[in-house]
Predict the 3D structure of the following.
Amino acid sequence: MPPSVTLAVTRYRPEQESEPTLQTYEVPFRKDWVVLDALNYIKDNLDGSLSFRWSCRMGVCGSCGMMVNGSPKLTCAAFLSDYLPGPIRVEPLNYFPIIRDLVVDMTDFMHKLKKVKPWIIRAQEKPLADGEYLQTPDQLEMYKQFSMCINCMLCYSACPVYGLEQSFIGPAAIALAQRYNLDSRDEAARERLEILSEHDGMWQCTFVGECSKVCPKNVDPAGAIQQLKLVGAVDWFRFLLPWGTR
Amino acid sequence: MSPGTQYTPYHPKWYRRRMSVWWWLQNRSYVYFVLRELTSVFVGLCALLLLWHLRALVQGPEAHAHFLAQMRRPFFVGLNGVGLLFILFHTITWFNLTPKAMVVRLGGKRVPDWTIAGLNYVAWVLLSVAVAVVLLRG
């Protein structure tokens, strides 16, 4: 076991430099340390000016996503021991504008997420006195996988379509749209299908499939997008028929 | 700040990275993806060859003999060989991806991915055997 490991970390201080550079730090190696622990060691002991996001350090909050040796990872789940002998390259998430060091601007994702209306929509809300909208375990199972998304945006950083075409609504937002479409309490699947059938929607996806591979919660956004495409295609063929739905 | 400066509130001074034209060489999945997209060219070429073959058949025995002679040329043998490899790649990769798009539930349980992909392979083998039987009988 080596006594230490080298981290090459992206630095971008907009007041000092016009483009990002890599700065190396030597941190002690411990076999139970993840990349986030090493970054915190740097922040606490070597260089307090390093900026990065993190919160829960247990794969739930989705804040600490970064590129580790070129792959999008939650740094709280990326063990240093998996990247030996190093140096380990830590960069901000791909395809997002960098604000500072390892911090990216996620506003674009927030807008896209809101656009797909990821909440339960009813044609007619029933009065509170009538009680909850009940759901069976089987009905829950229909969408549960897609509801595990923690908005960490690793899938966007793995998606070359998003890199090339920033208007693409993207994997996580579509997976969350499908999560509500499959929810037995929701009644807005058609409304969302209209939104996702627009130019920047699901048809931009060319099924690279990398989004599902990097997802730390096994959400499978690529699957959600292809399932929606199938629904969209069937809907379009129905529209062609004289007795079609529209 | 000069009076003419446009200022967008809360807009930080971003750095946007350019995407390299070689992005598809960054990892193996991207290379597979680009190869899979490229297979469509060979699928199209084989469809054109089939149309050419049909046209030769309609035009009579002489045209058909000419078509077969053309197909024996190294260029077309090579093209068909490479085409076959790409079409096999196309078929296998798409069959393996079918379960992503098709969610089949039986008795409340999701049918496993390997079953959905496996059924495609079974159908492929059965159809191939049927075509072989028709051809070999002829």
User: Anything to note?
Assistant: The mean pLDDT of chain A is 93. The first strand of chain A starts at residue 4 and ends at 11. The radius of gyration of chain A is 21 Å.
